[in-house]
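Components:
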Amino acid sequence: MRPDYATARADIINGIRAFRVWTRLGWQEVKRRYRRTFFGPFWATFSIGAFIGGMVFVWAPLFKTDVTSYLPFLSAGLVAWTFATALISEGCGTYTAGVSLITQLNFPYTVLNFMVVWRNIIVFFHNVVIVVIVVIALKVHVSWQTLLLFPGIIIVAVNGAWMTILFGMVSARFRDIPPLVGNIIQIMVFVTPIFWFPSQLGPEAQSIITYNFMFHLVEVMRAPMLGTAPSLLSYAFTIAGAVIGWIVTFDLYARFRRRIPYWL
Amino acid sequence: MTSIIANNVTIDFPIYGAGHRSLRQTLFARTGGLIRHEGTGRQQRVIVRALDDVSFTLRNGDRLGLIGHNGAGKSTLLKVLAGVYTPDSGSLSVDGRVSPLFNSAPGLDPDDNGYENIKTCGMFLGMSSEEIDRKLPDIVDFCELGEYLELPVRTYSTGMVARLGFAIATAIEPDILLLDEGLGSGDARFAVRAEARMQALIQRTRILILASHSDALIKSMCNRAILLEKGRLIEIGPIDEVIRCYHERPAEAYVA
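Structure:
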């Protein structure tokens, strides 16, 4: 398919410019979850919290660590993981969910992508309450490096934006992708050091972690939440991921954007 | 200068997952153009040619009626003009702000209240925040939903939703207006007001394109017409001529 870079660029630029539309739509969806429930999106937070609360007493002894260092690690990791993977799994449904709009109107489709990213940022700030509670309760060291959480969120969001475009497009064309992606994410949560510390894997198997992109996405948010700076390696991987991801996605978007309404 | 220039516009719909009856039926229902099979065996793909080599030019003041049987390509042509589908071959240049009114309320969410939906739908219809704020009193006034606007739209009756959608959709300021049949709109008293508002909208529109099966509607609103058949442009010209041509076509032409 011949690429149409001008249209793709216009779509992305106009999508960013329409920030009032996607911030509003993102909020609106979070607000909908609050309707007729008192806790709204906090129910998802409770569910993560209950999971952590239940498992920490089994896993801390199982992994031979003490609860006071394991609990903050697990909560920060799981909250960061939930954010990063929600961008991928919800990204798969971006265009299929927007079918009524895409097949009726001509508008920058990236509005839908940015809406998914924005909505998940809002949900992340609900879930982060768990980490705040744990950090306060266990008096985890808070430092200036904690502020690195914010650039971390931005890096993950920028990666998330290309992921929702790429996975959204592929999923619109091939309907096997969303369940496949769901499967992979389910396995990745065990392969990625979320439930166990990277140091526990031993030196010979470290490459499983080093080349795991998801680990680095988690790490740029988790390390600051635990009061430390992420490694330069994690920044290198995630920033390179954002650049390469956007280049590849931009090229594919230029080629296939016009096919999206045909696929839906 | 508002204008639409279509040169040899052709649209092919590849049918994905033709093994699934439901999807196949929806697509066939939508197009009804020429069906062809490409490739062999497992690689075989079904392709429907929904528009075939369609050319025409429209300028300021043109009110074009689209005539043709189910699946002749009327709705596909409207969607191409709306920018939903990009032509596979041929070219289309549209100069002016296009407002498609296929669905009166794009992005309508039943859990949001009337005011929230006015904002969301307005944005998707291409209005800026300021424009929506400026039009709000007019929309509120016209739909006559009063305090209902503070309730979720799911509590509205079908007619009330139609009224809200109509009030939002007709508040736009388009250069080019695309209409698929008329817009539905509530009870008898409201229908009279809706008619007047629709006429006002059409008055301030530079180019109107209306797809309809009603000869009377086309005659009352348009000054030119196109006859489509199996995705091909058969006739373009004054309304009476095109309608006559439509009724004189042999019956076999109906079957896609």
